[in-house]
Amino acid sequence: MGMTITEKILAAHSGRDSVKPGDLILAECDLMLGHDVTAPPAIKEFRKIGVDKVRDPGRLVLVNDHFVPNKDIDSAEQAKVMREFACEQEVEKYFEVGRAGVCHALLPEKGMVVPGDLVIGADSHTCTYGALGAFSTGVGSTDLAAGWATGKVWLKIPETIAIEYKGSLGKWVYGKDLILQTITKIGVDGARYRSMEFLGETVSQLTIFDRFTMANMAIEAGGKNGIFEPDEAVKEYLAGRTDRDGVYLKSDPDCEYVEKVTIDVEGMGPIVACPSLPGNGKPVGELKGTRLDQVVVGSCTNGWLPDIRLAAEVIKGKKVHPKVRMIVLPATQEIFKQAMREGLFEIFVDAGAAVSTPTCGPCIGGHMGILAEGEVAISTTNRNFIGRMGHVGSQVYLSNPAVAAASAVAGEIIHPDELG
Amino acid sequence: MSENVFKGKVWKFGDNIDTDIIIPARYLVTSDPDYLADHCMEGAFPEFRKAVSQGDILLGGENFGCGSSREHAPVSIKAAGISCVVASSFARIFFRNSINIGLPVFEVSGLWAETSQGDELEVDAVAGTVKNVTMSKEYPASTYPDFIREIIDAGGLIEWLKKDQSK
User: Fold this and answer.
1) Predicted structure pTM score
2) How many angstroms separate the CA of residue A189 from the nearest CA in chain B?
3) Which of A1, A114, A134, A182 is the most exposed place for a label (fewest CB within 10 A)?
4) So what's the architecture of A272-419 in CATH?
């Protein structure tokens, strides 16, 4: 029996020739990520293990991204705990405010992940790096602490569900729409405990950024990871970012998929996920007239440079609706700088939008754009759970950046074509 | 060693109870279990901690604990006094976090629909059964692989690791 890409990576990292779904392995991690919310509890657990030093500081990444710039004294204390640990353990891949960004955009941008890698992160959206043909998955703080001490993580080999896309992408349709449609079709637990492998003729039309968006949201269908077969687009993206070659794997023709789901994108328009699950997707036209108070463009899902460019293109020369606040957050310092160079900030500021330094803030209801009771937002982020962006009586709709920007101008959810 | 029998009153919640309901991110400025317990389940039931008695059992539907990897979620449930979580199914990160921090979790099918808020449940981890005492009906719980059982018996991943190192 052949193996999937995921099975091949997991076998290679546990010293086995082959693995099959259900096998339990102890796998060697190439990279272990923590941030200002999940690293402090991991540090607390690490202290209990009885070792002084992490096994290999070169494999640790620590990023300040969630409550930064620190929103209050408590969050500053947490960041301090992580900063001091990084110093004590000589962690070189420690990223401070002003040199960082949202972790899942930062790691690829810095060339830290290559095809064939195994990455764990104490953040559920760690699955993002599947866009590069790496196995990456979210774990908790205790798993992270154990990984720091041993270099390893225990994993159950997941079954793989194949998501096949066919047809050509229409105007205003991006990776975000494909993944929202996918989660809507299979459900928020449709890939629970499973690996999602994205394939099919449409994949070659997807940019690496579309793929980041899709792999990022594998967790919203319950997936353990979401992975694409690495190709030329990955090579091009990584060129100049790393000296490591990576291992470009393919699933064997006789590998076993537990389920195959086909998504026909031909004629598909933008999809918007309604409150309060990412699987509540509807064609944008059905939501016309939904009044908005806030629009957020950013996050590890859609805070990439092409996302910021797209929002700017839509809003250029127009004004944010008087009753709406629009907040734009480029995901990293590098994206921020390039967007600034291209004059995109001038477009947003002229339109009456706020441009923020990179942070996870509003996406998690942390800071920098919290909703009051009864308020409604459309956001390019990944979750619209009850209370996700603020008050439990607020609501979040999820969309691509073009729909979000057009809706900011209209003051209600609309199709970008209707903006005129 | 972990406890093997849990008996308590049921707090029943629905499907897809996500980690933002269990513990909203705005409270993640600390990992103090007692503080987190004060806000546990706030998104669905703001008075949860006050209402819970030590040893009560939390019952979820499908996909319990979906969303974030925040370990603060099982930590807050444990610190609120809940002895174990029973659900029709669990999201995977929540599941492994619970095992790792020593919060017992049991996957049981059929129980949720036939159990009401306030019923009394008895969970026998060794026998692998969950009994609705109020309804006098017993259900099989899914069993753990040996490796996971070892972590549970050790009292969590860190204790297991310490034990493993001393071998």
Assistant:
1) 0.97
2) 6
3) A1
4) 2-Layer Sandwich (3.30)
